[in-house]
Specification:
The protein contains 24 helices and 34 strands. By secondary structure, it is an alpha+beta fold. Helix 23 packs antiparallel against helix 24. It is extended. It starts with 10 loop residues before the first strand and ends with a helix.
Length: about 1050
């Protein structure tokens, strides 16, 4: 999975022209199970180096397979070399020649417990001490015989081969991206617990691979650098404190880091903010990791296999049966590979099972079900060890868990759910952070650090402050008691780059050691002392004598001082300077003022003091007064003493006279000796120092050069020469090749092939030749064959490429004709539309005028509706899109026409020149030049088509927007119309209601009137009745 883009943004390349060709930084994280590498180079801003299989990490393994060619059985046959997963897969077939997980062997004594553990895990490997060092070597028939005839690989040589393979992958990646060039500077990401011997072994392997180590950075600091690249920290913000918990395949480390912003001086009076990453403390376990978990699973699989009925037939004795399988190289390799696979599966699943074909003596093995709970029970004994590095790191930093912000997990081991659960239980789930790439953060951070150190790249400014892991002490023999004295100079967690003075009282040449105090749990708390370097003085005896002769310095007054610094490159101590000397008192002695002193030239105490200390320039012919003036002329003299000016006189045999500083007084004045001034100065002489590597013997330059002649460089060259011989032989039978070669050249090439073919398999020739000699033979052969082969290929490919170019030109002509026809057709359509539009407008205008004449009051009806409609029409008219653009402009048509004419003319003239030449002559019309013209024509046409598509898309977008606008207007009008209709209907309804009400009122009135009439009639009848009665 690739990292997010923001991880790369801080790395902004800005190289000076003079260094562009040389600035390349290769960062390598040498892990126990995998090796990761990243490259930063002009034009390649911090990118992971892929393997030949395009993987982002390479398995830490190298293997050898017997060569396919064995023409000389009596001589050494160079085997095929495999790296990474190819080598690991070879372990089951050739376990005696596959070397995985070499990191844990670096700088270790042959009797170290880690070596015994490694030997038990890979029983087929023949581990021996080296010829000149008590470190690990492997006896192997795949190694060329050494000076003593032994066939051995040192662990540094094997690691150097892997580093060379990474370098080749980086070169291939850079060349593929069009950025070829040398890649030599490398920075390593290493564990914090690495000792001086382990660092030396890694440095040695890099030098053997032709790499220059510019720095080493601890894994935790590298992850911290990667974390800081994509984050900003302000000086005003509170610093962040994080712990990098890194569990890899072979070890676990915890690093406490403080991230903060700080303001520093910039150009002139300006200031700038930078990020500071400070390491506060570290803790580690050198053997806790994925391999320890794999070991438990491997033992479980072995026990499960031995319980099967077929396995019991191996031996009647169970202990013997177990040893037979465990110590079998092929069986051990298969069990280990399956154990690692089971662990990875159980990290994501709750249960699994596995099978191994022909585990031992053609007996197949199919495991029973293995659950995650079983696995966790197997490794439960390591629970305390999982959290111990965290406690140790915080203790060394002087912090508590409450004072840290998060624990950032890194490494493959943290993917085991059980490990993650233990960490969550310790610090809380909210404090567990997975904000970095657990595989690549270390190598990316290390490479970023390398880019910053190189000064050739402009990167985000991050000030890294690392610390030393182990206490640094000096060990020497006391000159008086002859006892060995050890003095701590730098305690643990001292910042790298710090300088300190180391004083001694030796007066004769001596030596002292710089040592590491390494914690050793097995020794009851007593640390293991690792000697780093021996410093030998070369001129101390002579310098002591000179101090006594020149200044009267006694032995008890002489002291030595050495400046020791913690080197930022790799954290190791180094002596940068040394001197010996003593304190000398200089006494001011008065002297009468002379005419010369009283004149313009002037004298006085100031000039005399300057003259004595060498600060005053002497005039020509002027001598030193202190040397030219006899001691008897000092009429007023101070007592010679190295301690007090009032002490009594001492004989010349006991002590030299105290040096004096002359000053003057006016003639006749009496000087006041009580006020005589004493000036004390430390007179010192630089010491010549010889620094010798302590501990294991240093590998000589001759041994390093001898390795350079070994494979893979020799193997690669040999294989290339061998394949080239076969290839040239085939070419010499090819008629097309012979046609392109002169007869005398063909004969010379045939002779050269026969000579090299015989030399290749000669026991005194190619079988023992160095890589450089093989390359010379290859170059001599290719100098003859390459020009002929090039002419042959040109003669074969040229007709086809010419036809391709002619076809391209013909297609371009067809396109040109199509463009011209389309332009004419579009113009005709535009003219027709304009005509139709004008006719339509004229008809609409006539119809409107006629309607107005027929009904002069029609425009007053529905005035609002007409007004809205006319305004919408006006809006549509003003905002209507312009007419569609042409598919191709006239300039584009003319440019394509010119291109066709020019290319046709060029091709015809070049073909005419080529026809005149014989097939043995170098061509004037090359395939490459034709291909470039084809590309030129195709690119031009593609550009035209893209422009046409772009114009069409832009017009379609405008049309779409216009249609959407018209539709919005139509919907708006429709809405307004419906609203108005609704309102009209409401009004009609109201009117109807009013009418109904009026009718009801009329009816009521009529009823009232009828009632009144009836009442009158009744009243009349009543009156008549009454009248009749009267």
């Amino acid at each position: 999975m690739r990292l997010p883009l923001h991880i790369y943004l801080p790395l902004l390349l800005s190289l000076p022209q003079f260094s562009a060709a040389f600035s390349s930084i290769l960062g390598i994280d040498v892990g126990q199970e995998f090796i990761k590498a990243a490259l930063v180079k002009p034009g390649i801003p911090l990118e992971i180096v892929l393997t030949k299989d395009s993987k982002r990490k390479e398995a830490s393994a190298i293997g050898f397979k017997p060569s396919r060619y064995s023409p000389n059985p009596a001589g050494y046959s160079h085997p095929d070399r495999l790296y990474g997963v190819d080598a690991a897969n070879l372990g089951a077939r050739f376990p005696q020649d596959v070397y995985p997980n070499l990191k844990q062997l670096l700088g270790k004594h042959i009797l170290d417990d880690n070596i015994q553990e490694y030997s038990g895990r890979y029983p087929a490997l023949n581990i021996l001490p080296g010829e000149s060092r008590p470190t690990v070597s492997f006896k192997s028939a795949s190694s060329p015989p050494g000076a003593t005839g032994e066939q051995m690989f040192t662990v540094e040589e094997l690691l150097a081969m892997q580093l060379s393979n990474i370098q080749r992958n980086a070169l291939a990646m850079a060349a593929e991206k069009g950025k070829p060039g040398a890649i030599q500077d490398v920075i390593f990401s290493i564990p914090a617990y690495f000792t001086a011997e382990e660092k030396y072994s890694l440095q040695l392997a890099a030098e053997m691979a032709g790499l220059k180590v510019m720095a080493m950075i601890t894994d935790g600091a590298a992850v911290g650098m990667n974390y800081a690249t994509s984050r900003n920290f302000s000086p005003d913000d509170k610093p962040e404190t994080h712990v990098i918990y890194d569990m890899g395949s072979g070890s676990t480390t915890a690093t406490v880091l403080r991230f903060s912003g700080k303001s520093v001086k910039d150009v002139g009076k300006f200031k700038k903010n930078i990020t500071e990453v400070a390491v506060l403390g570290v803790g580690w376990d050198t053997t806790l990791g994925g391999d320890l978990f794999n070991k438990k699973l491997s033992e479980h699989l072995l026990d499960d296999f031995l319980q099967s009925s077929k396995a019991k037939s191996i031996s009647d004795n169970s202990a013997n049966r177990r040893n037979l399988v465990r110590l079998n190289g092929r069986s051990a390799a298969k069990l280990w590979r399956e154990a690692a696979k089971v662990r990875h599966v159980l990290s994501a699943n709750s249960e699994t099972a596995t099978s191994i074909e022909s585990l031992y003596d053609d007996i197949d093995y199919k495991s029973s079900k293995i659950t995650r709970q079983q696995f966790e029970e197997m490794i439960y004994e390591y629970a305390d060890r999982v959290t111990k590095p965290l406690h140790e790191a915080l203790e060394s930093a002087g912090l508590t868990f409450d004072e840290i912000d998060t624990v950032i997990v890194h490494g493959g081991g943290v993917r085991v759910p059980w490990v993650g659960k233990l960490l969550e239980d310790l610090v809380g789930e909210s404090k567990i952070s997975k904000t970095v790439n657990s595989d690549e953060a270390a190598v990316m951070g290390a490479t970023f650090r390398g880019a910053a150190l190189s000064k050739s790249f402009k990167v985000k400014e991050i000030d890294l402050k690392e610390i030393n892991t182990y206490a640094v002490a000096t060990t020497y023999t006391n000159p008086g008691s002859q006892k060995e004295i050890s003095q701590t100079i730098f305690p643990p967690t001292s910042q790298l780059g710090t300088e300190k003075l180391f004083p001694t009282k030796h007066t004769e040449d001596f030596s002292f050691y710089l040592t590491h105090s390494i914690p050793n749990p097995k020794s009851g708390g007593k640390p293991l002392v690792e000697q780093i370097s021996q410093i030998i003085t070369k001129n101390l005896t002579d310098s002591t004598a000179k101090l006594n002769a020149d200044f009267g310095c006694k032995a008890e007054h002489i002291r030595n001082e050495f400046t020791i610094r913690l080197r930022e490159k790799d954290g190791l101590p180094e002596v940068i300077a040394g001197w010996t000397g003593c304190d000398v008192d200089y006494e001011e002695v008065p002297e009468p003022l002379t005419d010369k002193d009283n004149g313009k030239e002037g004298g006085g105490i100031v000039d005399d003091v300057k003259e004595f200390f060498g600060l005053k320039k002497k005039k020509d012919g002027e001598q030193d007064k202190s040397n030219s003036e006899p001691a008897s002329q000092s009429k007023v003299s101070a007592s010679p003493s190295s301690s007090s000016p009032s002490s009594p006189s001492v004989s010349a045999e006991d002590e030299k006279p105290t040096p004096k500083v002359v000053f003057t007084v006016q003639e006749g004045d009496t000087p006041n000796l009580e006020n005589a001034k004493i000036i004390r100065k430390f007179e010192k002489i630089p010491l010549a120092l010889e620094v010798v590597k302590a501990g294991f013997p240093e590998v000589s330059e001759e041994a390093k050069d001898a390795f350079i002649q070994k494979p893979p460089r020799r193997d690669a060259s040999f294989n290339e020469l061998e394949s080239t011989v076969y290839k040239v032989r085939d070419l010499l039978t090819n008629d097309a090749f012979l046609v392109a070669s002169l007869p005398e050249t063909t004969a010379l090439l045939q002779t050269r092939v026969d000579e090299i073919s015989s030399w290749l398999y000669d026991s005194e020739g190619g079988d023992i030749a160095s890589g450089s000699v093989i390359k010379e033979k290859l170059a001599a052969l290719m100098d003859i064959a390459n020009p002929i082969q090039k002419r042959m290929e040109e003669n074969q490919k040229r007709p086809q490429q010419i036809q391709v170019l002619r076809d391209t030109l013909e297609q371009s002509k067809q396109l040109l004709n199509l463009m011209e026809e389309m332009t004419k057709l579009e113009e005709s359509k535009r003219e027709l539309k304009e005509k139709e539009k004008k006719e339509k407008e004229a008809k609409e205008s006539e119809g409107t005028e006629k309607e107005k004449k027929d009904d002069g009051f029609a425009d007053l009806e529905d005035a609002d509706v007409l007004s809205t409609s006319s305004s919408a029409a006006a809006s549509e008219s003003t905002e209507a899109p312009s007419k569609p653009p042409p598919s191709y402009t006239q300039e584009e048509i003319s440019a394509l026409s010119s291109l066709i004419v020019n290319l046709t003319s060029w091709l015809d003239s070049q073909v005419a020149e080529q026809v005149k030449l014989p097939p043995t002559a170098d061509p004037v019309l090359t395939v490459k030049s034709i291909e470039s013209k084809v590309v030129e024509a195709n690119m031009f046409v593609m550009d035209l088509l893209q422009k046409q598509i772009k114009r069409k898309e832009e017009w379609d977008r405008k049309e779409k927007r216009e249609k959407e606008r018209v539709e919005r207007e139509r919907r708006k009008e429709e809405k307004e119309r419906k609203k108005k209709e609704k309102e009209e209907k409401e009004k009609e309804k109201e009117k109807e209601k009013e009418k109904e009400k009026e009718k009801e009122k009329e009816k009521e009135k009529e009823k009232e009137k009828e009632k009144e009439e009836e009442a009158k009639v009744e009243k009349g009848k009543e009156e008549e009745k009454n009248h009749d009665e009267l």
